[in-house]
User: Fold these one by one.
Assistant:
Number 1:
Amino acid sequence: MPAILHLLTRALAAQKSVFAHVIVGNTAAHDVAAWTKDISMAANVGIDAFVLNMGHNDGNVPAQVANAFQAAEQYRGQFDLFFAFDYLGGGSPWPANEVIDYLNKYKNSTAYFKVDNKLMVSTFEGVGNTQDWAQYGPIRSAVGPIHFVPDWSSLGPNGIKAHLDKIEGAFSWDMWPNGATDMDISTDLAWQQALGSKDYMMGVSPWFFRSAEGGKNWLWKGDDLWTYRWAQTIKVAPRFVQ
């Protein structure tokens, strides 16, 4: 991993955390040893936890989540995991009862990441299911205290304002430049302003492309993004970086 990642994750360490996004559906060949190796490399550069992105109805998820927790529990609180329920990646949104089942199954693990003793939970989208996460809604009522920081980027900073009572923060998926210009921090600052005192989770990524049938092909400008985007985290100073 680049030295800048090590330095910047350490710089953000005081009461702040840096996470790495892991798509569990891509880990079908992993065993506990592979998860342990990945966790060791991540921990050695100052990453605090893996965000386990889980698509609904993905058959790889149950076994690989179990493997990941078995591996992380060996670190005795020195490296953690938490769930990001992917509402678009599994063919159908997550039903509240299945979200509840996963959280209740793993909430007492020594490797589950907590914020102020509350379970950290995120999503990839899911704006059609916002009521599931209401303060006295089905998930919180069945699971207990959670620190909910979803990626509801499709709402935008203005749209998130109508849902501040359901969240403890928000994650922005907008971490790549649009067109030929470099990425700036204007979107990050707009999210921070909209969230007020709630937590902002800032995204950092290298270049990103997609090649798929059906015309879903794109390439987002990367170039030096991996370097200057990390430097931008110092300016934005979010509580969480993913």
Number 2:
Amino acid sequence: MALSPEAQRIVDAIDPEELARLALDLGKIDSTPNREGPVAEFLCDWLSKEGFEPKTLALVPERPNVYCTVPGVGDGYSLLFNAHMDIWLNEKDIWVVHKPDRAWFDAWIDGDRVYGQAVVNDKGPMAAFMIAAKALRKAGMALKGDLTLTMVPGEIGWEPIDEFQPPHYLSKEAGARYLVTHGVVADFALVAEVSNFGLAWVEAGKAFFKVTVIGDSPTYTPYVTHGAPPEKHPNAVVKMTAVINAIEHWAAEYERKNRYEWERGVLVPKASIGAIRGGVPYMILSSPQVCSIYLDVRLTPEGDPLAIRSEIRKRIAATGAQAEVELFLYRRGYEARNISRFVSSLDAAHTAILGAPPKPVASPICSMWRDNNVYNEVGIPSLTYGPSAGFSPAGVGAAGTGHFFITKPDLAAAAKVYALTAYDLCNQTKV
């Protein structure tokens, strides 16, 4: 598809090598939760040098949001880009990833690939819309509507539970939600995350449950007896095995029964046990009396966490085990409303750059939490869209390890789509 002269100037203003270097520089900064300060400082410096006017806004001082707005010159629609600064893991998280590969906590370029889990989630897409905004200015393209860039902490999801309490353990409230409630809003919001170039304006919610079983009084190892069925076992850890088995069977049924079909894909809500606690490793000479598991249940936009809690209780009770089921987190999922204008602009931009309309997204893309839920909750039509991500094995014998990457051409294509979407949408007269 031939581009208009204006669109071609915008596309030509995007330098793929500059974009790759920016993604690399961002990806090399450790910004695991509560360490977002240094990357926020880098972002402010970059934006300032490029002629933007960045600001910060923080619920927690060391975890600032960074944002800037390019004011529109007319009465067009406003568009907000969002990406998160926080990353999942670093080399110390050995209880989540066994012997974390370099790609979990570093970034590098090899050929046309930019490696690093921080690049994939989410600094590559972030760099893409930053370069897109720079290209619009470099090409001399004033927009009728405002264009706002936001880079937020707290998307990854350190949620408070047990002794892990705020402000150190705090998630969405510190990031996009804090910006929205303090006036950083727009007519539409694009959450820039990897999506294999598919559009998703449906996103799952989530409910977290703590399931606790109580065993008999602690028994010193020489007095332990064996032979009781798991659900009747005096050791809380052994008793929990019956509960885990029941929940695993329930989880498979839950996702089959709760598929949510929508225009561009299918949301398949998953349920997964993410942690277990029972006893202490330095004092294993007696059987623990308490054991808890922590269950992540994804929700469709129609999902009812109380009904799910009831299902889990019934399934556990059927085993003969007794357990307390506590709902400790609930975040709704949403399907965007009044989003057709935005989708049309992005579809057209995608087709112009990639030569064909976007394909439906894979179900995991709309079956996870992303910040478009924050915007859709308050009535700002939001979708997620971004480049493809790859994974390459680290080497023979390195089971379970490998390298995350985004290619330079995919980063550049995403930046071009972002820029052309903003150019089209923000220049439409608001009605």
Number 3:
Amino acid sequence: MIFAATYSRVFTLALIAASLVATGCNAGASVSNAAAPPPVPEVSVTTVHSEDTPIYSDYTAQTFARDMVEVRGRVDGYIEKRLFETGTDVKAGQPLYTLDLRPYEADVQKVRGELSQSEADKEFAANQVGLLQAEADLAQAQANLVKAQQDVARLQPLVKQEAAAQQDLDNALAALQANQASVRAKQASVEQARLSTKAQIETTAAHVESQKASLRSSELNLEYATIRAPISGRIGDSMVQVGGLVTRSSAQPLTTIVPLDVIWVRFKLSENEYFDYERRTKKEQSIPLQLVLADGQPYPHEGRIQNTVNQVDAKTGTIELQATFPNPERIVLPGQFGRVRMRTENRKNAILVPQKAVQEVQGLQSVLTVSADGKVLVRTIVTGERIGERWVVLQGLSAGERVIVEGIQKAMPGSVVTPREE
């Protein structure tokens, strides 16, 4: 019994010892596994280089229509037809409205009749009927005078020879005097007729010219009764509908037309920026502009500055510049906001890093770099302008350094990584 109890106690102790040994082995294995180093993470890096790059500045901009035209009536009348759809593109000279043409057509016919009458009067005056009659009477009087002179010349020697009566000679002399007076009277009549005819011709000619001018005015009014587009562009809504009265003195236009190609853009520079712009324009003929629309997309057509306003805004200390952009698709409309991007300088040996590599915490910007032995280092940087998807680094980086761009979350400062060049 004692042996059995002793055996049982020894067996129990042996089990306990075996259990302790097994536990110790497992603990040793766990300690061994915890001590094994983790694998070195792999990150993507890019080696920064110095390069010459253009620097751009962005300015708030707004589009506007410089040559917008208000369409107005040049004659009075009621609208019979509207010949356009709101928001469509129209061409210069295209009919937009038709007024009631009947009053103007009747006026044209009336003035044409008056012109025909004036032309007939001018033709009659030109024929000089009264002058011709006076000249004929003068010719007859002159012929009678010649006959009277011949009678006197024939009777005078006969009377001296007492071959003819003195009474006959006296009658002949009286007839001669009468014919001389008649000729002088007829000559005066001819001169009077000539002056009268000249005045009549000039008067009727003036009437003809006046009627021609009246006819042209009536024809113009008839033309103006069809209201046409003065310029090409996109037309707005009609302010007067069919049946409405159009007057020349109306303060309200019928509609407006906005030329969209080209589109004008205005933006403002500070005084210092303006002086810098003036210095650059002396070296460059034209500075290209890029327009960034409200959706953030760059406009595909390049613009050019056309002019500046003539004074600085006293409230803001800025000066306005105006530029044009081709707009053949007519997608940009007046009144839209965006940004004008203008090249302000060509910077030499600039350091640029991808935007995704830059981290910002509490206003401080930094990047992670990888040293030659693979150690991750934190570099505090100061950035300047943004060029596409990259930042210009003003301080904190040098050419040839490797900057982490992918795997930043796996790279802890001071740790070792495996860099992979992008």
Number 4:
Amino acid sequence: METTLTTHESARLKELVREKYSQIAQQDLAVNASSCCGATPSSKEVYNIMMDDYSQLNGYAQEADLGLGCGLPTAFAQIRQGDTVIDLGSGAGNDCFVARHETGAEGKVIGIDFTPAMVAKARENAFKLGYNNVEFIQGDIDEMPLPTAIADVIVSNCVLNLVPNKSAVMTEMFRVLKPGGHFSVSDVVLRGELPEALRNDATMYAGCVAGAMQESEYLAALSAAGFEEVEVQKRKTITIPRDILAKYLDAAGLTAFEAGETGIFSITVFGRKPGATERGVKPRVKLSELQACQPKSGCC
């Protein structure tokens, strides 16, 4: 179940993540890719732990790619020309710029991030690229500074697991989506329990692991927030390298963890708010078609 925290504990975790991601905003892509979301020590065994390759997606801007994602939600989000898209935890703007390519000049993309350094970096990137229909605002995604029913699509990449009150984020997602609007969100989830040393470590929390929910509970929470058609669009296994695990677990703990059945996964999840959009219900793309689609082919 989602852990219930006191107001003080929740505020402390938020500040921890804010401070860490202020540092991460200045780190190189390679450093972030070879660690857990840029927060843990880098691995010398594995170059890329969580992130997927964005470079073949239309709209990709290398300077906005900090290597902090765990999926490609914009490739699965079924964004149409003219849509208003919100990116939760927008970082340096990478997913926003990919989404902008799909919305076209008549659409709008809004990125929300609660780290001032990330918002500043994203605005600088948008200015350099000359984009005037991409906006970055500072704010909490569990209490968005946005009107109700403003968005056609919500995307997010490895962010909800960093928020102490995930149910509040899901409720806010439901609020800001238009009737018939939908989301595509990539996140880290668990099957089984993490060892206590990982579960209680602040760095592992900022590293998108310790704050992850059980997959079944994550999907159930989205349905409880009011979403329909909740389903996993893509799932991949995340393996934390031994040289990182050894920073937190002793030899016996490391052996037990590797021999156990705990699984860490990145999932990309779809869900829809009930109702019809002003332009009618959007046509669904079959998940089999999405999963077979390769970005370089142009179909994503």
